[in-house]
Fold this protein.
Amino acid sequence: MKKLLTLLIMVSLITVMVAGCGKTPERVEPETTETETSETPEAPATAEAGFAADSVIGVALPWLGTQNWAEADEMFKSKLEAAGFEAIVQHADNKVPTQQQQIESMVQNGAKVIVVGPVDGSQLGGVLEEAAAAGIFIIGYDRLIENTTAIDGVVQFDSIKTGVLQGEALLAGLAAQKGEGPYNIELFGGGPADPNAPNFFKGAMTVLQPKIDDGTLVVVSGQLDFTQAATLDWDNAKAQARMDSLLSGFYSDKEIHGVLCPNDGIARAVITSSGQAGQETPITSGLDAENETVTWIWEGRQYSTIAKPTDTLVSKTIEIIKALQAGNGMPAPDETTDNGMKEVGIYALPPLVVTKENIKEAFANDPGRMELLK
Ligand code: BGC
């Protein structure tokens, strides 16, 4: 009995001790302290801390094959240096591995922000995630970066709207210069790796498809899909070769009245091909307001282009970099778009259609292009 009593007392004592032990962690005072610490203003999150005014800023451009990228290359160098930053500006000659290596070396060189115009919108996830993990801000430039969370925003001219304007310009030009219709047309798209290219095409087709459906427009080749219309790597020579074979295959006894062209280089390739095939110059859309095209529009050889001034695009990007440097974080975007992994903030600039009619007005503040209009 005595033994039983002793045992009972011991069991109760152990129970009290165990219960007591169990309580201790429940108090979790240190956790409360931790929460308070992270809320104190002396400990700002890294994203809000800003960085030195003479920091390295990396700019990874896809290629210099169209005038807009060559302009961006020069403007980023001069404007970033003028703003006090150390600029590393490189282009990748349209090669994905080259661009990946360039971004990696920008990370190793201590860049605080990396601006990227991707060669291929969906091939940079790995290297950009590395950069983001190192606390670097990543800004898409002119093109969306897809399938990664390692992107803080994109500065670009609205790509669907650009396509809509291209479709509208083609219709307006046909009505103004090619009689009553129906009109024979063909469709060209840009490089399929560039996320802008399917968007330009999609925007244009919102305008053109109803006119194809009601018979106003006839795509004589029947090549209506983006995949059939796309131009690998935005290569003008490939566009010209496709136009040559469309004309010899489908237009030996027909006139071509118009061609949807996603940029100026492709428009000039299409116009050249048409001339060589003995066709009258078709109405075309375009993009970039390249110098050669500005001259062609002024001379009546190309119907339209779209101005998306590089100066505006670069200046907007640098404004964002300055906000980040000052510790103000990314400014509020104009809209967002789904890149396959997240809703990305877009700083959207308005594209402008240019024809011979408004060309002087459009470039009133661009002395270089005004010089071509004499
Ligand atoms: C740009 C165009 C350019 C094309 C080919 C696109 O992403 O928006 O301005 O003509 O790439 O370089």
The radius of gyration is 29 Å. The longest strand covers residues 343-349.
